[in-house]
Amino acid sequence: MVTYIVRRLVTAALILLGASFLVYLLTAASGDPLAEFRASSAPNKQQLMDSRSALLDLDTPAPVRYFKWLGGAAQCLVPFTGSCNLGKNIAGQPITDALGHALIQTLTLVTGAAVLAILVGITLGIITALRQYSTLDYGVTFMAFLFFSLPIFWVAVLLKEFGAIGFNNFLRNPEIPLPVSLGVGAVLGAVAVIVAGGDARRKALTGAIVFAAVAAVLIYFSVTQWFKTPGLGPVVIAIAGVGIAFAVTLLTAGLRNRKALQSALIAVGVGLVLYFVVQPLLNQATFLMVVLLAVAAVLIGMVIGYFMGGYDRGQSMRAAAITSFLVGFLIVLDRFMQAWPAYFNNSRVRGRPIATIGAGTPNIEGDFWILGLDSFTHLILPTTALILISLAGYTRFTRASMLEIMNMDYIRTARAKGLTERTVVMRHAFRNALIPVATIVAFDIGGLIGGAVITETVFSVRGMGFLFLDGILHVDPNPVMGVFICVAITAMAFNLIADLAYSALDPRVRVKA
Amino acid sequence: MSQPSQQDEIMAEEAGLRQEAAGIEPVSEARGLSQGQIVRKRFLGHSGAIVGLVVFAVIFVMAFTSVGYAGIPGWWKYTHEAVSPLVNDGAPTASLWPLAWGEHPFGQDRIGRDLFAMTMRGAQQSITIMVVIGLIAGLVGVVVGALSGYFRGWMEAVLMRLTDVIIIVPALLLAAVMAQLAGRRDEGSWFASFASSNGVLALGIFLGLISWVGLARLMRGEFLTLREREFVDAARISGASNARIIFKHILPNAVGVLIVNVTLTMSAAILTETALSYLGVGVKSPDTSLGLLISQNQEAFATRPWLFWFPGLFIVLICLSINFIGDGLRDAFDPRQKKFNAKKAKDADAAIPEKTPVAALDSRADDGRTAGGDRGA
Lengths: 513, 377
Prior knowledge:
The complex is a heterodimer of chains A (about 525) and B (about 375). Chain A is mostly helical. Helices cover about 75% and strands about 0% of the residues of chain A. In chain A, helix 6 crosses helix 14, helix 8 runs antiparallel to helix 9 (about 200-225) and helix 16 (about 420-450) packs antiparallel against helix 19. The N and C termini of chain A lie close together (about 5 Å). The relative contact order of chain A is 0.13. Chain B is mostly helical and about 375 residues long. Chain B is built from 15 helices and 2 strands. Chain B has a two-stranded antiparallel sheet with strand order 1-2. The longest helix of chain B is centred in the last third of the chain and has 38 residues, at about 240-280. Chain B is globular, with a radius of gyration of 26 Å. Chain B starts with 5 loop residues before the first helix and ends with a helix. Chains A and B meet through helix 1, helix 6, helix 7, helix 15 and helix 17 of A and helix 5, helix 6, helix 11, helix 12 and helix 13 of B.
């Protein structure tokens, strides 16, 4: 095992050296960094050219410059000295600073998108695998191919037009005409008919209920101007919480496990009591406090489950913990909604909350909730675009993996033992289907740092991709190298992690030393 | 006498085949058909793939005949560069009801160029690039994968490390370098003159030269498993040369994986080309491409939305049809394909299949129908 890792690391280092040399030469050969001065008619033209030549060290041939750069970059490998030198960009800013800034921007952009795409993609993949060749399966397959074929810059422009400009116009006077409410209700009802399982009568009933509920809620929103002062309130949280409790119990323990269901319902009750207790606390919230509250919610749930016990204490604890986490999420969501009017009327936002460019409103001031809403409104469009295009891969892959697992002998054995379908799917199939998915996820996380060049360009987020493209367009090797090194190292590290994880998760796979 | 004859064994095997696992339908379409016939039958039974094929053929014919190609004039009256007076302020004249084509079916841009001609020209470029990338990536990928998978040893080590290096060098950078080189017409190197006169072809070749890496890895994997098989040993013992073993014995067995993945590489290549053109390092003006059209016209979305809709629609259509064709090919080539159905598996206790269905059950549409009818429990 150790030999294997060492061998992989040595190979990776050699590949990195070769590739970085290639990248440096290519960037240096990609154009003339002095081009903008050559055409200019400024009186101090020669001086400007000289200063840039000196800054970029253009008198030295590119291969030699690479080794100079490598000498500086090698200092980064020595820990705790702080003498990391990746050179300066064309404006004279050290690359290490620029990289740090860009990395934060990129991570805030891609993390949410990646997590959501993975969760939704895996869920869809599992469901479509279980309902193979149903209308739902065909629909999701078609959507997956469609999203797969969408150019992201096209999606981004559409989102800007309809998601931002259109929605902001709507928010100015949030009234939904009656036909629209009914139409949205009908569409969602039709979706529910497709998604719902069972015979035709049950499907029709589900569709009717969804149609009625959606249409009623939209009419209610329109009448009460909900979008101006959104909020959930304890009643909605209670109803949604009971629903969550049933759903979570169904998935983790099965509704026949009464103790687990009771634990989840008690967790919802405790959450409702705490809703009133934590409101004053949440007014002074910080990021750390919200994280601690989330941890506390999970712990409370586990304690409830522990004392409820039942024939399988673990199941009760799991059900209650997940339920209380989700109820806690609802409470935080409610608090964000309470802050919405203040954000909406902020002098910097001026009633047009959904932003089309940037990663935050410049010079905005406010508490945790206002700032959180600000990044939310800026991130929602690029995140949606990224989710749309990366969803398809996860869905297809999970579906294929799940189908393969469902053909395995041990699944038939599990069925033959008389286990419920829930246990077979959740315990035996789902976990094993996730093994190949886990490696894909590791690959993708490795690639995330590179940022999404096109998404960042369209939405003017100054992240890693932007830095990279900017470096290329200005024939400036140092930022290009900085981004490349970060991306390549993370990608290789995660490749290694993916391989190791595969052999750890699947005992049939062994790494060769 | 008590030894079971071969005949008995075969019969036992067939009996075993008949009692397939719960929910898994037996694939018994193979009787008396060659590999090619089976694949063709499966592919033609895949409705998504057939629709994709038809859509792609229509786009292909339309793109290459309408505005002409390589100096041959087409049937459409405008070219992508010709400027004509604005009709109806440039709005599209095509309408579905009454069905009419009009003077400028997709509308015109601000200075009066015909969008239909420009879109068709862009579709030509995209398809050209796609085919070039598919050919080059397929060729290089097969050679590299075959050599490293078949010969192993130092050849594998060198080629695979080369693959690793190329995988991590970003395509965007290479495209930028390439665009820069193509821009230097005045320097007069053979490459620059070639690239400036055949911009799209050069871009395609260049992208092809970097997108073979995934294919090479896949082909290596195929060769690694296939070279250990008995038929390869048999060929070697009967004195076949390495080249003959690679091309006549192993490659035909790996061709399914190859074709499917070349198709998928091609669909990804279209998006890469449009993205590069969008970022300004792909196809350059005055020539046009679908990505470039979107990039030029995205600011005009509020005033002239059709300039944005039609090129995007064609990107999606081409890419979607290629993806469906690839999906159909994958289903057609996968020999281990089995149909699993969770619902049927649950009901299988009640209804064990009594006879092996003779007809091909492989097309998806067919299967959906027979699943309910044949053995609904």
